[in-house]
Write a structure and sequence with these properties.
The protein is of the alpha/beta class. It is built from 2 helices and 7 strands; from the N terminus they run βββββαβαβ. The chain folds into 2 domains: 30 residues, no CATH class; 59 residues.
């Protein structure tokens, strides 16, 4: 068991978020991770993170196929679509 540095509750070592400025956090205190998913498809990465209980703060997606984008936005409407990686510029 570990102790969350924010709420002071004990939590299993199975879940731990280490932050530079706030120490070890339990999954309830963790604000989530930011994800950049290139060639995202239908967001199986987001689904996998959900399945293991990892919170997502922001999820950025790069995908071309309209059906995959539509499916992603249906299941995860907060996903930020970035478009084609070939069209990104500095």
């Amino acid at each position: 068991m570990k102790t969350c540095s924010e709420c002071k509750k004990d939590y299993p070592v199975l879940w731990k978020a280490k932050t530079r400025d706030r120490g070890d956090l339990c999954k309830d205190c963790c604000k989530g991770i930011n994800v950049l998913s290139l060639f995202n498809g239908m967001s199986t990465g987001h689904t996998a993170l959900d399945n293991v209980g990892i919170k997502v703060n922001k999820y950025y997606s790069s995908e071309l196929k309209p059906y995959a984008i539509e499916l992603t936005q249906y299941h995860y409407p907060e996903t930020i679509q970035l478009g084609d990686v070939n069209n990104w510029s500095e």
